[in-house]
Each structure stands twice: as structure tokens, then as C-alpha cells.
Amino acid sequence: MSLSPRFVPAVVGLLLGASLAMAPSAIAAPTKFHLQEATITDIQAAILAGELTTTGLVELYLKRIKAYN
């Protein structure tokens, strides 16, 4: 069974909303992590060290996208 492309944004929104509801403290991204300078290894290390969450990473990317749009 495949998902219709028109439902993908809704599914992504629901998943993101559910993750935000489960971890409200993870909404704010840490200020000491600099996305522009980060490598994938840096991101992985920050997540493993508890300095960054995946939700926080998404928020950083969304802020960056908004700044450039």
C-alpha cells in the first residue's frame, strides 16, 4: 500500500505534532549548537551527548529555511 503524495504533508505534520506533544522540553533548540558549522558527525555527537534532540534539529532547520525564504 502506498501513500498518496497529497497526504504526505498531513502525515509529516501529524508525526511532528505528536513528537512535540510527547517532548515539550525538546521544542527549544540549544543555543550553543551551530547548525551552519555542523557536520553529520557533530550532529550525531550532540544528539548522543543529550545536547540536541531530533526535534531541536528540525526546529533549527525550519528556522534556517524561514530565514532564507
How does this model look, in words?
The chain has helices at residues 8-22, 40-48, 54-68. It has 69 residues and is an all-alpha fold. It starts with 7 loop residues before the first helix and ends with a helix. The model is unreliable at 22-27 (pLDDT under 50).
Descriptors:
mainly alpha; 69 residues; 3 helices; single chain
Instruction: Give the overall form.
Output: globular
N- to C-terminal separation? 35 Å
The largest β sheet comes out as: none
Report the structural category. Answer: mainly alpha
Please trace the helix and strand order, writing H or E for each element. Answer: HHH
Oligomer: single chain
Question: Could you give the topology of this structure?
Answer:
Layout: H1 8-22, H2 40-48, H3 54-68
In short:
The chain contains 3 helices and no strands.
